[in-house]
Amino acid sequence: MTDSRAASGPATRRLLTLAGLLLVALNLRPALTSVSPVLTRIGHDLGLASAGQGVLTTLPVLCLGLAAPLAPRLARRIGPERAVLAVLIVLAFALIVRPYTATAGLFLGTAVAGGAIGVMGVLLPGLVKRDFPNSIGLMTGLYTMALNLGASLAAGATEPLRLAFGDDWRAALAFWLAPAVIAAVAWIAQMHAVAKPRTGTGGPKRLYRDPLAWQVTAFMGLQSSLAYIVFGWLPTILADRGMAPVTAGLALSISILVQVASALVAPAIGARMRDQRAVLCVVLATTLAGLAGCLYAPIASIWLWIVVLGLGQGGSFSMALTLLALRAPDAETASELSGMAQGVGYVTAAFGPLAVGLIHQFFGSWSAIGGLLGVIGLAAMAAALGAGRDRQVVAS
Length: 396
Fold this sequence. Notes:
The protein is mostly helical.
């Protein structure tokens, strides 16, 4: 379904809509990336071993996938704008509750936050396609840029916040309530200021029988698995290799911040090409090179590999989102494909961080996870060779 207001509406309307979308996107990762810089401290205070810490990093990713299929139903029931606002409020509640309700509350709040992010992650690409139908590449890049910025800020600032709050990781985690509240206020403002178009309520598509839809889903899930392994474990890995905790958190922050560049460039190149397989393979190979450098290269060269990793992962994620639009013949099918790819994909991705925790606990070494990362990366490349072809999924 198209919307003429993006092309002919006043500039203020477009700016309000853009601001609302970007502020919401800013909140799609801090609940996840704020945990890893203080993960060791959390484990020490709550008595969580590597396996327990692995569950904590896995839980939100699993809930991202489990909650994603709820997004289309919620949007049909109350409308996509109200659905985003409702889920933002749920996210804010989870962020303030989880640090202060002991171990059970930490896990439950993290799960709820992951579910809320999963719902918004499905809703926002549909709103982008509906409200900016002639600027999909640019808006996907800006959306991904805001998402990466939020992830980077949380990764880099959480450990300094812990120190600023008197060695209190709970207050540092609770701090990320603030961006959610700001986004909710801005979202309410743009809901009142901008007249929303009516949206269709078409039924589900038969995507689960389409091999191309499964290839897109596999690529989304496998590249996400690598991303959430980095979000959940990179600061701990680098700290164990000799970095100070604050510096290790800063390394993750820089890696995510670097993603902004490739998140803008990769879709701009890929969307103009008839076939995206070459772009997908390049960004995945770059990701694997960065991961190998972080694990095995001399610690003195780690900043080079941090940048390489960021460039690879920024391009991988933005291309995964771009495929949702390129492989769908219309906006409604794109929304269904988004729900499938993020729902099934994130459930698959959740096992990556968990497997890292289990492997480390069993072998007692981070070097042992290199094989896991290689297998995931090669599987993602195989999926990319199918998903990158110049074809579209069957709409019905």
